[in-house]
Structures are given as structure tokens and as C-alpha cells.
Amino acid sequence: MSLLNRGHVFICAEPESPVQMQTNYSPYLSQRTLRVIVSLIGILACLLAIWMTAQAGFSRLLGKYATLEASLPAADRAIALAPSSSESHRVRAAVLYHLKQLPDAARELELAVSLRPRHDYLWLELAIIRDELGDSAGALAAFNESVRRAPHYAYPRWQRGNFLLRLGRFDQAFADLRYAAASNPDLIPSLIDLAWGISKRDTQVTVQLAHITTSKMRAAFAGFLARKGRAKEAREQFELADAVSELTRRELVRHLISANAFKEAFEVWKKKGNSEAAERRPAAIYDGGFEGPLTFDEFGFGWRVSRASQSVRLAADSSQFHSGSKSLLIEFLGDSSPDSSLVSQLILVEPSSRYRLNFAARTQDVVTGGLPLAIVSDAAGVFKRLGESAPLRQDTTNWQVSSFDFRTESGTNAVTLSIQRKNCSTSPCPIFGSIWMDSFSIEELK
Amino acid sequence: MRLRQRKAFKALAAFLVFTLAQVYTQFSFAQPNPANTVLSVQQQLIARLTQHRGRQGITVNGNNVGSGASIVTGAFIETSADQSATINLGPFGSVAIGPNTGLRLDYDDQGNAKVTLTQGCVIVRSRKKAVSEVVTNLGSAGKTEGENGGSYLDVCFLNGKAIVNQGAAMVAGAGAGAGTGAGTGGGISSATIILIGLGAAGVGVAVLAGGGGGGSGGGTNPSPSSP
Fold this sequence. Notes:
The complex is a heterodimer. Chain A is of the alpha+beta class. Chain A has helices at 2-13, 18-23, 27-69, 72-81, 86-98, 102-115, 120-133, 136-149, 154-166, 170-183, 188-198, 203-210, 215-227, 231-240, 246-258, 262-270, 275-279; strands spanning 304-305, 312-317, 327-334, 343-348, 354-368, 372-378, 385-388, 396-407, 414-421, 431-445. Among the domains of chain A are: 50-151, Serine Threonine Protein Phosphatase 5, Tetratricopeptide repeat; 304-445, Jelly Rolls. In chain A, the strands form two sheets. Chain A has a five-stranded antiparallel sheet with strand order 1-4-9-6-7. Chain A has a five-stranded antiparallel sheet with strand order 2-3-10-5-8, with no helix packed on it. The longest helix of chain A is centred in the first third of the chain and has 43 residues, at 27-69. Chain A is elongated. The relative contact order of chain A is 0.06. Mean pLDDT of chain A is 87; it is low at 1-16. By secondary structure, chain B is an alpha+beta fold. In chain B, strands 1, 2, 3, 4, 5, 6, 7, 8, 9, 10, 11, 12 and 13 form a 13-stranded mixed sheet that branches. The radius of gyration of chain B is 31 Å and the shape is elongated. Mean pLDDT of chain B is 73; it is low at 24-38, 178-187 and 202-227.
């Protein structure tokens, strides 16, 4: 009966599972054993993971140490800890390279590449070392693989292009170099420089080698040519560019002025989007009435305002004017160097020609031993002074119109008109008071 | 009828010839401008730059360059304080450049080189029959002897004084690469091992936390993040 009873119990328990049948004999002990086994497996797995990651981490740390200290033993230990890590082999290769053991470095990189063959940078490093070893075929194969693994990256293409260039395969080389420069515009100056060198400084060949067809490329090439003193070609490239940033134009004008290519600089400067600038004739003064805004960042043929002295204030004044609706007000508050220009302008002129410069000025409460005056100097060479006005009178509440003549030298293409002070007989040479200047104009005398 | 057919055939043939000629002409117009300019570029010796220290700092004509850069004749090369480099002229020799050096390198296809040193140190090695000269603003500092099958010139131009073949350029780091002999000694010291081990504990924790791992597929990608 008892068996039957127990059997009845079993029959009721049967639908669950045979295991449960067993556990029902000693349910507490069996579950506990299972938990212990599972926990042990988990702990072992965690320990294994800790061990493996610690090894990997230690290997990396040793790798960093090896790289920093160029320590081959450290690199070897790093590999011993993580023999299947491409990074460990790469580190050892770097150390060997550092120690000038290039063949060993190449072999180590080959190992790294075999462990991680899809890595473009490993192929590239291998290619560079093989190139250095003179293994052109091996280097080309590695370069090709690097480009294949990262077809849109600039650096592998740039490196392969340089390599092909040295092999004399110019068409393939420049295809790669152009691709790289298109991908990374920072490489454009280097591309232009290489094309310029390879073409033996021929502008047209450079244009064709580097495919200088976009506005960005043309602007970069214009700047490059300006720095090389090829002003005419620089301006041509600038003219061909559709849209050029203000910064690029500014740089170009600066380079052209530095190269004394004033006419070309003027043509580039004229395109600043200002109608008065665009209409300005070469031998003329830009905004002679100070009607436009005065800025510190003028870089071309407008008024350049000096920041040199804290004790001189310059402003466009609409309360006083000789013509138009404004004039230039200069307030002197004490110390200022008589030699430094307060405001100046670059003016294009013809060589060996006579000019007359006119302006109007008024002064108020001026006290000084060195009065202001207008000076015209050659814009190039030794900046020879070509003419100057008489010093302004000390108290002229009414506007005084002044003029003076000057003659340009045979090599003069531009002059600088500047307002500065006459030197004092003693030093220091302070100045107090205010002056207004207006209606600057220049005329050629026949 | 037969005569009429012949005339028709002739007219058709003439028309076909005319049409083909037009097509050919059109193809000629439509062809992209071939890159025949490359053919106009003559073969020339192009030097290779190898950078020995760091990754930045060497400029060629004002542009930053690294190992593998091509150097054409007339290039102006500058190194910064922690940079040195070698310019390889292929079978004709090399120019090793020390830190803080500025020079102009001119060479011809026979490997004859002229180094105009504005400041710093160079070691010029000539092979075969190539002759190299180092010039400063004081004049010629020296010339290698091409006929002897290879020669060497060690020049430093510092503070307006030229020091020739006294090993000054070698001392300054020209051509020495970096750290020759460094780390070739008898392994890592115990203290270093302990220090690295202490660091490794931290790294191990960090690696665990980050879930990183070694192995062939692991590690950071040293490739630039952008093309």
C-alpha cells in the first residue's frame, strides 16, 4: 500500500521530468551541487578572462614602454605575453627600426601583417620599410595592398604616389597624389610643390600634372606662384578661380606686395567686392575723404591705420569735414614716436613721372616740437623719400589746403603716402592736441 | 535599272563614308584631354626623405613632411630641435641632417649634390663618382672626392662658424637616427618590471572594464581616423 501510495505520488509527479523525480529524493543537496558547479564554472571563466585581459593589458603596457625606451627586451616580453597580437609585433618592428635593424623590422612587420592582413596601416609601414631597404617590388606590393585595404584614405595613396614618383612612373604617381590631395586638402600645397619641382618650374606643366582646375587649387597655386615671385602667372591663376575666400585673397595680395608686384597686387585687391575699390584707377587715392570705415586690418591699397601708440587716437569724424561728410580725426595724448606712420596708403604710380598730392587739414590746440606732415616714399627698395608737405600749422581752426609735388624714380611702381611727425630736436618728443585731415587726392603733372 | 542601282549604291557608300567620318570626328572631339603632359616630363633623380625622430617638424619648402617624402632638386629643408632626417640620393649617396638645421639641396641626375647650409649640421656621403659640396655663407666648407669611390663630409655651421670634419655633425645628431644602442642591453631591470607590473594591474582593471582584448583582431586601429 505504502508502495502504491508512494507510486501514486510518483504518478502525480511524473509529468514534470525524470530529473525532478530524482531531485525529489534529495532536492536540497542536488540544487546546491548544481549551483556550486555553475558558480565554479563562472569563477573559472572570470579568472580566465582576467588572466587573458591582464596578459593583453600587460603586453600593451610593455609595448608602450618598449616604444618609448626603444627597448627590445620589453618588446620581446610583450610578444611573449601576446604572441598572436599584431600590435606586439608592430611594436617590436618599430623598436627594431629605431635601432636601425631594418631587415628584422621588415620581417617583424610581415608577421604583424600576417596576423592582421586587413589592416592598411600595417601594410603601409611594411611598404615604407621595404622602400627604405631598396626592395622596390616588395614595397610596391605592400603599398598596393595598403591602398586596396583603404582605397579612400589619403595617406596610403600619398605614400604610394611618392614611391611611384621616385620610380619615374609619373602618370601613376600623380594620379595617386592628386587623389590623396582631393581627399585631404592639406596635401594640396605639397602636391603643387612636387609638380612644380618635377616640371622644372614650368607653370603649364605644373597645372597639368597637379590638375589645377578647381577654384581651391587655383587659389593655392596663385599663392604659391606669388611666393615664387611669378606675379603675372599668380594673377592669371587668381583670375581663373571662380570663388576665392577673403583670407586667400588677402594672403595673395600680401605675397604680391612682398614681391614688389604692386600692379598685380592692386588687380587682386580691387576684387574685394567694394565698388569704389573696383572703380579705382591705379594712380589715385582710395577714399581720400575718409568717408568709408577705417579698419586695422587693411592689407592692400586702402588706408592702413597704425596701432603703434596708445597715446594716439584715430577716428572718422562727421562733425568736421572739408569735403563729403567726414574727415580723419587724430587726437594726440602725449608720447608718440615721430618716426612711426599714423596712417598710410599704398598708391600705384608710373616710373619717372611727376605727381602733385593735395589734401586739407585743420588743427586745434596742438602743442609739440614735431608737427605732423604728409610724406611720400618709394614703396620698394630702400623706401626713398620722394616728397613731403610742410608741417601742419599749429592752430588753424579753418581748413587749410596744402599740396606738394614729387617725382618718381625710374624703378618706382608704387609709393607710400603716410602721415607722421617731423622729428623733434630733443627726445622724448610728446604731442598734444587734435588734427583733422580730409580731401586727399593725387594728380599726374605733365 | 542596273545603272540606277549602281548609282544608288555609290551614293549610299558615299553617304556611309561621310557618316563614318563624322562619327570619327565627333569621337575625336569628345575624347578627354589625354594626360600627354606626363610624357613631357623628363626622367630625373628624385631623392627620398627618411625621418629619424618624431612625426612632425620637418618642412620641405614650407610643407610638413615625413618618411617617404620625395625631395626634388632645389628644395629647402628645415628640421626642428627634436628632428633629424636623411635624404637618400639613391646609389649616389645621402645627406644626413641634424636637428635645428636649414639647408637648400640641389643635385643633378649624376648624383652631384650641393648643400647650401644656412644653419645646423649635415653629414654628406657620396658614392660612385658623385661629388658633393657643402656651402655656407662663408663660402665652400668642403667637397667630397668622387673618384675615390665614396667619401664623407661632416659639417656644422653654427653661430656663423663652420666646423668641418671634426665629428661635430655626428655629435649633433645628424645621421645618427635616434637611440642607437638604446635598449639593446641585458633586459629590463627588476624595478622596471615592478613598476610596469603595478601599472599593468591598473591596465588590467581598465581592460576588464573596457572589455578590450588582445589577439589578432584586437587593439586600436592606428590608421588615421579620417581618410
